[in-house]
Amino acid sequence: MDSNRKEELRQAYKLATTYYGVIQIENTRNHKIWLDTVPNIHNRWAFYQLNLNKDFYRNTPLQADWDAQNGEDFVYTVLWKEETVDVVNMRQTLKDLKVKWFKKLQPFDDRGYNRRPKDWEEN
User: Fold this and answer.
1) pLDDT (0 to 100) of residue 50
2) Exposed/middle/buried for 75, CB within 10 Å: 0-12, 13-18, 19+?
3) pTM metric for this prediction
4) Burial of residue 98, with CB atoms counted within 10 A of its CB: 0-12 exposed, 13-18 middle, 19 or more buried
5) What is the C-alpha to C-alpha distance for residues 13 and 110, in angstroms, rounded to an integer?
6) Which run of H or of E encompasses 4?
7) Alpha-carbon distance 75 to 24, whole Å?
8) 3-class SS at 42?
9) pLDDT in tens, 91-123
10) Residue 30 half-sphere exposure, CB side, CA atoms within 13 Å?
11) Distance CA 71, CA 63 (A)
12) For labelling, which of 23, 59, 81, 87 has a CA lying 20 to 30 Å from the CA of 41?
């Protein structure tokens, strides 16, 4: 690939719309889910696969199931996304989204891999 084409691709990447959102990894064998909010959903599944294959989530039920199933039977889904253009405080926005989706899907205990927050209220 010539240098002009590489530069065109770089510029297109920089100008591409960025989305933040809520993602889910589901074990289709036991239907447990892992839920997260992320500032940029682009290539996120590859990020999680890499980390799980490198044992990044060691000593967690998610990692144990991933290892036992060789990463098979897991699917990645973007549950919700929005453009990042109008977000003033991304950290707080993601925190608020996580609370909302945790309440909605309850990805804890037998239903999921997430840890219940210490200050969790199930209202």
Assistant:
1) 96
2) exposed
3) 0.84
4) middle
5) 40
6) helix 3-15
7) 8
8) coil
9) 999 999 999 999 999 999 999 999 998 876 665
10) 16
11) 9
12) 59
CA-to-CA distance for 37 and 39, rounded, in angstroms? 7
Give me the residues paired with residue 4 across strands: none
For the residues 80-90, what does the mean pLDDT come to? 92
Q: What residue ranges do the domains of the chain occupy?
A: 38-113
Task: Provide DSSP, 46-78.
Answer: HHHHHHHHTTTTTTSHHHHHHHHTTTTTEEEEE
What are the tens digits of pLDDT across the range 19-38?
A: 999 999 999 999 999 999 99
For strands 19-27 and 74-83, give the pairing: antiparallel
The type of residue at 77 is: T
Number of H helices, E strands in the chain: 4, 3
Please give the single-letter amino acid code of residue 23.
I
Is residue 38 within 8 Å of 78, Cβ to Cβ? no
